[in-house]
Design goal:
The chain is an alpha/beta fold and about 190 residues long. About 40% of the residues lie in helices and about 15% in strands.
């Protein structure tokens, strides 16, 4: 293992691996230490949903940041696939938000109205249209919002791609390294 580095990152999940990737793109010497295997903890269990509407209640600074980041994601997929040699299994499948109790239909309609200023494509689906779009929905679904721009990705592949791309550009990754403490020595 290298005795010196510019930055040590503890944890090789999606966050640690992404930080390593971007630091290496900036020419920073990076070492990543992982207690187990790269991406084997929470990052491997993530659903991989790229569905901003679920996190937003309407316009504002958080919505602006989230939507700007989300809009950049397809270009990141291409970049990471090229830098890592891995296929990320990114799909723009759209998503449904459903209500199963007709009494809650007005709440879903209210959410859609709150989301309208965000300028994402959304379609109100009646019970019949929702079941036509997704035949495996529960029989008691009474209405839905379809957001065709939302997407999904295989989360474990994303972690592997960030780690491999960072490694390909010179980051050092070490598995099975439990961190018990930190000592810093000034040069």
């Amino acid at each position: 293992m290298n005795q010196t580095t510019d930055v040590v990152i503890v944890g090789a999940g999606v966050i640690g691996s992404a930080i390593a990737y971007y630091l290496r793109k900036s020419g920073v010497d990076v070492t990543v230490l992982e207690k187990g295997e790269i991406g084997a903890q929470a990052s491997s269990a993530a659903a991989g949903l790229l569905a901003p509407l679920g996190s937003l209640s309407g316009p504002g600074p958080f919505a602006d940041l989230l939507l700007a980041s989300w809009a950049l994601f397809p270009s990141l997929v291409s970049e990471l696939e090229e830098a890592s040699g891995l296929h990320l299994e990114y799909e723009q499948t759209g998503s449904l938000r459903v209500v199963r109790n007709p009494k809650n239909t007005s709440n879903l309609r209210k959410r859609m109205n709150e989301w309208q200023p965000l300028r994402l494509e959304m379609h109100w689906l009646s019970e019949e249209k929702a079941h036509r779009r997704e035949p495996l929905l529960a029989a008691d679904v009474s209405a839905a919002i379809f957001a065709p721009e939302e997407a999904q990705i295989k989360a474990p592949q994303l972690v592997k791609a960030f780690a491999r791309a960072a490694g390909n550009s010179g980051a050092s990754f070490y598995n099975s390294r439990e961190i018990l403490g930190v000592a810093r020595q000034d040069r």
